[in-house]
Every structure is written in structure tokens, then in C-alpha cells.
Design goal:
Blueprint: H1 4-17, H2 20-25, E1 27-34, E2 40-42, H3 44-57, E3 58-69, E4 75-86, E5 99-112, E6 115-123, H4 125-133
Parallel strand pairs: 1-6
Antiparallel strand pairs: 1-2, 3-4, 4-5, 5-6
Length: about 130
């Protein structure tokens, strides 16, 4: 698999399986992770720690995935719906007690040498908070 759409599809399929090593395999060692309405993290170890926290706090699956890529394969984007359950409180966010949520999201990717070198995910945090606070 060398085309951008195939790489992103494999990466997102690994996410849906909860296969963190599978996701990490598609990332460049120096990956830049721009967290939704948050900071920027660098490198696979930081991304792995993020995935570990996600696994503790959330159970999510992506649906209705549409992947788009630029003609040179250096950039791609995906739009999808996140169906999830909030399992444990994430620091700075509301308390968790198994609330379910559903929200649209998008992600932007930069690719280099067959690997994802940048991941930037966007979703409406206010919408998510309103759903889990209800």
C-alpha cells in the first residue's frame, strides 16, 4: 500500500479494531500530533501515550468514513462520524459514567515516505461536552 488513501484507510481501520500497534506502524517516528483544541505532541512515544489514555477513557468507532487525498499524495483528509462511550474521566473534562455520544469529526494528515508524519483531528468539543453532560 503506497497511495495516501490506502494508508489512511488502513490507519483508521486499525483505530476501529482498537489495534494501537497497527496504528503506530503507519506513523513516522517524528509524527506531529495536533490535538483537537489542545497542544501539539511530537514523536511516536507521545502518540502511544495518547492512545493509552484514549483507551482508558473512551471506546470509539468511526463510521461513514470518507477519505480524500491531494494529487501528489503528500496530504490527505478524512471525514467521519465518531460513535463512542465515555468510560473514565479525562482530566479537565466532565465526569464519566458510560455516557454515549455521536459527533461528526475530521482529520488532516501529512504523509512522507509511505508514513503519516502529521495527524490533526477536529471535532466540536462543546457538542461532545453537551452530550456527555446530559
Amino acid at each position: 500500500m503506497t497511495n495516501a488513501q490506502d494508508i489512511i484507510a488502513a490507519y483508521l481501520a486499525a483505530f476501529n479494531r482498537g489495534d494501537w500497534p497497527g496504528m503506530l506502524a503507519w506513523l513516522a517516528d517524528d509524527v506531529v500530533h495536533e490535538i483537537n483544541q489542545g497542544g501539539v505532541e511530537h514523536g511516536k512515544p507521545a502518540f502511544a501515550a495518547f492512545l493509552d489514555r484514549m483507551a482508558q477513557c473512551y471506546r470509539e468507532e468511526l463510521h461513514d468514513i470518507v477519505i480524500m487525498a491531494g494529487p501528489d499524495g503528500a496530504r490527505a483528509a478524512a471525514e467521519f462520524r465518531v460513535e463512542g462511550q465515555y468510560l473514565a474521566a479525562d482530566p479537565g473534562l466532565p465526569s464519566a459514567h458510560g455516557q454515549r455520544y455521536s459527533l461528526p469529526a475530521g482529520a488532516f494528515y501529512t504523509l512522507r515516505d509511505g508514513k503519516i508524519s502529521r495527524v490533526c483531528v477536529f471535532y466540536n468539543l462543546r457538542d461532545w461536552i453537551a452530550q456527555v453532560a446530559a
